[in-house]
TrEMBL record:
Belongs to the PNP/MTAP phosphorylase family. MTAP subfamily. GO terms for biological process: L-methionine salvage from methylthioadenosine; purine ribonucleoside salvage. It comes from Entomobacter blattae. This is S-methyl-5'-thioadenosine phosphorylase. GO terms for cellular component: cytosol. Substrate binds at M186, D210, Y211, D212. Its EC number is 2.4.2.28.
Amino acid sequence: MSTKPVIGLIGGSGLYDIEGLENKVWRKVSTPWGEPSDEVLLGTLKGVDCVFLPRHGRGHYVSPSGLNYRANIHALKSLGVTDILSLSAVGSLKEELAPGHFVIVDQFIDRSVARQSSFFDTGCVAHISMADPVCQRMGDKVAEAAQDVAIPFTRGGTYLMMEGPQFSTKAESHLYRSWGCSVIGMTNLPEAKLAREAEMCYATIAMVTDYDCWHPEHEHVTVDAVIKTLHANIANARKLIEAVIPRLGQPRSVCQLGCEHALDHALMTAPSKRDPALLEKLQTIAGRVL
Ligand SMILES: CSC[C@H]1O[C@H](OP(=O)(O)O)[C@H](O)[C@@H]1O
Ligand SMILES: Nc1ncnc2[nH]cnc12
């Protein structure tokens, strides 16, 4: 059976609107997990239904640790989103990933300490696989599109997920380099986990803005430095979005990588031990298997 995908776009630092969307309308969405970062922007791009959410809200007022990741992902799921594309500013942990370079991330390491990154809890316990945390099918489409619009990119790389909001110390930055990480940011892993629990495909486009603080020949990262590179990155992100949406929006069968069946063997709690109040909250996310 083939379905028509609905594309969710989560815009990070510097990306608060999608100008090219047609029939745009901002809509408030409520969720059982609280309020999302902002209203969502509904519209179509080249005939493909899209839902855009500015991760930090318009005006960038929600901090990485203060983000309600569950509400954000629930809001997209409740609007029928099947594929989420995240666009994020990141620091580079490798010489060859210079500011302006895009990385189609394929792994994460979690150094965050204070994120609510599961819909499940006592009363309905579930364990999903995060071995392959992003959707490679989406990654393929992003890579094709990036090639088409001539954006310098690398396929694959590990995103070090830090807590923040302060940037890293030099010792931390060198440690993450010694672990082989490619880029560093403060937001994407909770989204990848929650999207997987919600059985949605998810991919990250990490847009390098700086060399963090490890590089002897570059200034240590500051917001000022990030913003300087951000403008060029956002212009490229807009080109990439226009090129990738028609590819992602093609009718397709269920994702062969299993993203859309992640809950098939995940639930542990016996039906008689499940908490009715939690089950109610989980209907939109996990109703398929409850
Ligand atoms: C403005 S620099 C730090 C900030 O930028 C990144 O945000 P996002 O992932 O939403 O683009 C990073 O994760 C930090 O939140
Ligand atoms: N160096 C860095 N560390 C964490 N998040 C970032 N976002 C952009 N640059 C960053």
